[in-house]
Amino acid sequence: MRVELVLASLLAAAIAPSEPAFGAEWQPPGIVTSQSALGEVLAANAQASGAGNARLARRHERWAYVNGSRNIAVLVAVRGADFRTSLELDGLTYTAGRSDGVRWRGDGNGIVHGVSADLQGDAIDRAPRAVFPLDAASCKLAGEAQLPAPAWVVETDPAGDKPAFLYVDKASGSIVREVMRDGKRVVTTAFDRFEALDGALRARHWRVDDGYSYDALDVTVESIELGSVTAADVAFPMRRVLAPVAPLESSVELRSSFFRDRVKLEVKIEGARHWFELDTGTASITVDPGIARRHGGTTLEHAVLPGFAVGPFQLDRASALSIPPFNLDGILGLDFFFGHVVEIDYRHERVRVLSPVDARKVFADPQTAIVAANVDQGLPLVHAGFGLAQGDDFAIDTGSLRLYVMRPFALRFEKEIAAHWTVAGRSFIEHYLEGAIQVQPYTVSRFNFGPAQARDLTVGVQLPTALPDDLAIPFDGIIGTDILRNFDVYFDYDTGRLGVRR
Prior knowledge:
This protein is mainly beta. The protein has 3 domains: about 150 residues, Cathepsin D, subunit A, domain 1 (Beta Barrel); about 200 residues, Lipoprotein localisation LolA/LolB/LppX (outer membrane lipoprotein receptor (LolB), chain A), CATH 2.50.20.10; about 110 residues, Cathepsin D, subunit A, domain 1, CATH 2.40.70.10. Helices cover about 10% and strands about 45% of the residues. The strands form 4 sheets. The protein has a 13-stranded antiparallel beta sheet with strand order 7-6-5-4-3-2-14-13-12-11-10-9-8, with helices on one face. Strands 15, 17, 18, 19, 20, 21, 22 and 23 form an 8-stranded mixed beta sheet that branches. Strand 32 and strand 33 form a beta hairpin. The longest helix is centred in the N-terminal third of the chain and has 12 residues. It is globular, with a radius of gyration of 24 Å. The two termini are about 15 Å apart. The N terminus is likely disordered.
């Protein structure tokens, strides 16, 4: 593969897709064709849920999450279509909600990101779609099913959120079940104990099951108070970031290990040394469950790690996701990259955190190609593509070894792929922590990553598969280390940009 920097813009054009060859849509089993119309179903649900009732549109609620022996208080604020949930675990506050149509999640460090591209999910963030206003424009009728009572099944797939299947009871119009695919897991929420509330029917209890007994939640609505809800009540939380003991006067090289283009950094937890993989494709600091148990244990797959330090950068109590199965000490994801500029130098096998002075010099240097990066979804998404086939949502993933395009991109540019890409061997299965994808290798003549270009290379295209943990990846593609290793890459999440140099 030949790699070069080109500081010129590239032509981007959309090609209308033909009948899909790369598409595959998951849905729960047991759904059959319905003779009903979507409008009839939505009207029945609107009457049952009190849609349009101004008194119900602003309210405060208190829920109880029962998980094993834990009883966790959850505070909920609803303001029209926006909402926020808030709960406390081991002294740290975790939040989730919806703002301007976009679902978001905030970990115990206060780092907020959207959830539509988060393939791992979060056992804490299990607020069901069914108890908040439904976006009718995003709905289609998937069919109907027996639960055993007959129910219509509505698929809702709003922008800024994940698709979900809502089971609407034909007799009452209430949503009695919600099913969502979250990475390799299927999360099922079953509602009961419906009671009247200001002319509407409202579930006062539900059970959440993702197939793992330690994540199961019994949720009881303890109180609902209609009334004033301010914009601040549904706003994002404050951010806590890994910070140096003293302001950086010079750049700091972190103790690192490189193996086959994967990068690990030395991390200390209460002084104990561990090696965490540096992974821009992961939305949270993540820790092995065994290590989490040694430092206080987990609740709903979350741990609080005391005395957490990466070189001179510290958090007294760091929030971390802890999920099995796991074959690493941990992962440094989205949380690690805020508050400073991080350099990964693959050629010299080093990782540095730049001082403010050095960071300004790097981004002012004409040899640095600046790439706009959107980190709102928990990982950096950039503009990239192949000649006329271009997209704005390619994930920069230091935890992935290869360059891939996902089904949404392959569908949009199916004619371009058929005409100009060449099959380059047998398909294979790539396993990620969140699930698996089946990939068909192709050769392509060029690929641009922002203003940088790579020529004569192999790209994998995601195929439909019957694998039970097949990932429905919602962005255009993954830029892995087979591309990144040719560059010095500077990650500046706070201003939404990357610096790229040969």
